[in-house]
Amino acid sequence: MSTAAAGAGGVGWALTDSWTMTRRELAHWARQPVQMVVGLVFPVMLLLMFNYLVGGGQGVNGDNTEFLVPGMLALTMAFGLEGTMLAVTQDLNKGVIDRFRSMPMVSGTVLVGRSVADMIQSVAALAVMIGVGYAIGWRWHDGPAAALGAVGLLLLLRFAMLWIGIHLAMVAGKPEMVQAVQILVWPVGFLSNVFASPDSMPGRLGAVVEWNPMSATATAVRDLFGNPGGAGGSWAAEHAELLAMAWPVALTAVFFPLAVRKFARLSR
C-alpha cells in the first residue's frame, strides 16, 4: 500500500472513530434530557434576570438590552464546561477511557468526539439565546454576514474554553474536583465588560477588564451586530476583533497540545 493510500486510510479511520465517539456523547443527551435542558435554560435565566431585575448596565450609552445580549452570548460560551469536565472525569474514573485506549481505534478520538458534541451543544445554546434576545427587543443592525462573523467569534471562544476545560478535567482527575475548577470560570466571566462598560470602573480594574479574552469577544460581537458598547478609546477596544481571534487561537495553541499530551500519558 502506498504512503498516500495509508495516509488516506488513517484519516478515514480517524474520522470514523471521531464520529462514533460523537454519537456516543449525543446518545448520552437522549438518555439525560434534563441535563441538556438545564444547560440551555440557565443562561436564559441570567439574561432575563440582568435585563429586567438588575437592568441599567453601568456606563452604557444606548439601549441596555442591546448592550447586554451580545455580552451574555459571550458569557454563555463559558457556561456548561462543567458538563464536559464531568463527562471526562467520569470516563476516567470508570475506566471507560482505558477500555477505549485498548481498542483498535485512533488515539485521541475520544477527546475529538467530546469536543464535537460540546460544539453542537454550543450552537444550540447560541440559537436559543439569540431567539430569546430577539424576543425581548434585541436586534442586530449590520446584515447577515456581520452577524455570522459574530457567531463565528463566539464559537471560536467556546472552542478555546473547551480545550481548557478538557485539560483541567484530566488534571483534576475526579468529578468532585470539577466544581472547584469550575468556580474559576465565574471570576473570568464577571471580570469582563459583559454587564458594564470598563469606562465606569476604576482605572486599573477597567484596564484588566478590557484585556480579558471574554471582553474582547463581547466588544467585537457588539461591533459586528451594530450594538452599543462596541467601540472605545483604548487600543484593546479599537482592536477588539483582532483580540477576539488572537486570544482563542493562543489559548487553543497552549491547551490543545497539553490536553492531547495528558491524554497520551494516561494509564502509562
Pick out its properties.
mainly alpha, globular, disordered N terminus, 268 residues, single chain, 13 helices
Describe, in plain words, how this protein is organized in 3D.
This protein has 268 residues and is mainly alpha-helical. 77% of the residues lie in helices and 0% in strands. It is built from 13 helices and no strands. It starts with a helix and ends with a helix.
Distance between the termini: 32 Å
User: Counting H and I runs of at least 4 residues, what is the number of helices?
Assistant: 13
> Into which percentage range does the β-strand content fall?
under 5%
**Number of strand elements:** 0
Described by strand count, sense and barrel closure, the largest sheet is: none
Q: In angstroms, what is the radius of gyration?
A: 20 Å
What's the overall geometry? Answer: globular
Low-confidence stretches: 1-9
**Secondary structure category:** mainly alpha
Give the overall average pLDDT.
82
Question: How is the secondary structure organized here?
Answer:
Layout (H helix, E strand, L loop, with lengths): L2 H29 L1 H22 L9 H13 L4 H13 L2 H7 L6 H27 L7 H30 L2 H8 L2 H6 L12 H8 L2 H13 L9 H4 L1 H26 L3
Give a brief description.
The chain is built from 13 helices and no strands.
